[in-house]
Structure formats: structure tokens, C-alpha cells
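Lab notebook, bench 4. Still working through the backlog of constructs that have no structural model yet. Next entry is a single chain of 293 residues. Request: give me the C-alpha cells for it.
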Amino acid sequence: MNWDDVRIFLAVARAGQILGAARRLDLNHATVSRRVAALEESLRAKLFRRLTTGSELTPAGERFLAVAERMETEMLVARSEISGEGEDVSGTVRIGAPDGFGVAFLAPRLGGLTAQHPELKIQLVPVPRSFSLSRREADIAITTERPSEGRLVAVKLVDYTLGLFASKAYAEVHGLPETQAGVTAHRLVGYVPDLVINPTLDYAAEFSPDWSAGFMISSALGQAEAVRSGAGIGILHTFVARAMPELVAVASIPPIRRAYWLVYHESVRPLRRIQAVAGFITKAVEREKTLFV
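Model written out:
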């Protein structure tokens, strides 16, 4: 069995289409299609169903995917040992994270990691979206819930809280609500409901069952900036709001609790660079745990 064919199979499985895999691999569409056909012939099995929307794994393809990922793990380990990664932490690690945690917490601290390991390159992607680790959209993901499916390693980092905040200027003019019922009498800043990446982040009803924001922003940091400007009352990460002295908490409404998890695919567990980055993030959070609650 040709490893290059297996590598191309993995790219198609993760992209969900031959064209997307070809772009990722920097190959032409015909080459990718031909190599997948050669692999299917060698295995005497159909691995993909060709659809108008892309390529879907067959049951045989699903079974072979697990085998291919184990092969990939062995190749990654072999390459890291042969290239000398056993002595030095090197290579590129992409971290996908929610923008609040990614920008407000990770971005100011990851420079310390690259200073320790000059051959290590960090790509931080702090955007409000989910990342597929099986499709290699990121090497490490910070999530707000523990994944329940897939060959993933998940470590709980920390609990964090979210609460209602307003700018001091807004509070002086409009006051602050004293009950949940009083929240809707104020101008509200919130998230865009249909862009919420998972149900745990659709928390507005926990602060007011009739929550209706007039100003909605898909970025957690964008919401914080809007609240700081005096646009209204918003639900903010406590660790973000504490860094903004212009803000005041709505003390009558208790905060809610969520958690951050550090997650990576099992296939990259042996890589020294993954363990270095995961360890650095875990220790950084542990040292500053009081920021989050």
C-alpha cells in the first residue's frame, strides 16, 4: 500500500471533496482522483460515494479511516524522531480558540512559549467558530464543552464565569437593573443567536427570559467594547470585564459558570511540539486561575 495514496485519502475524507483536498495538497484534481481510485483498487473496496456536493465515506471508507489515522500517527512519530524533534521543540502548531480566551488570555502569553523554543511556530486563530480536529483545521482547540465523539484527548482547563456589565457612564445615566425582570427595560448588547457555535453559549435566557438585544455582535470582545462605549448592558466574560476599569458589574444578577477544555486529536499526542504547547497553556491557566472566577 502506497503511503502517499493513504495521505491523499485522508485529505479527501477531511475536506469532504476531491477539489478541496487537491487545493490543500497543492495537487491537481485529476491526480487526487486517480490516486484515490488506485487505493480503492488495491483495497478492492469503494471508499467514497461521489455526490454532487462532494465525496462521502462509504462504510468501508469509515473503517479504513481509522486504519489510515493510525498509520498517520506512526508516520508523524517516525518523522519527528528522525528529524530530531526528540531533542528540540520545532514545527508549527495551530491553536483554535474562542476570541475571548484566545485574544484576552492566550495572545499576551504565547510569546513566552516561542521565546523558550525559537524553532516553534505558533498560529493562533481566535475566532468565534468551532474547529474540526479530525480535519486538521487546528492542532489544538480550546472549547467550551467536552467533546463526546471522535478520537480526541480532552483536558479541562478551568471554570469561568459570565455576568452582566455596563459602563460606569451608562450606569450613572440609566441606573442598573435590580431584578431579572428589570433587565429588559435597558438597552442590551448581545450575541448573534444564529451564529452561536454550540448550545452552551446560548445563555442569554439565563439572565433574562425575555432577553432581546438591540445591538448584536458575533465577537465576545466586540460585545465588551460596545458595552465599554456605553451602548448598553451586556453579558461579558468576567476575566475580560475585570481588565476594563470603565465597567461595573450588575451585582443584583448572579453570574453563570461555564468551562474551557483543551482538546487535540489522539493521532498527534506523541508529538513533542503538541505536548509543549498543551503543557504551556495548561500551566498558564493554572497559575492565573483566579482570573476566571
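Notes after review: Residues 59-82 form the longest helix (24 residues). The mean pLDDT is 90. Flag for follow-up if needed.
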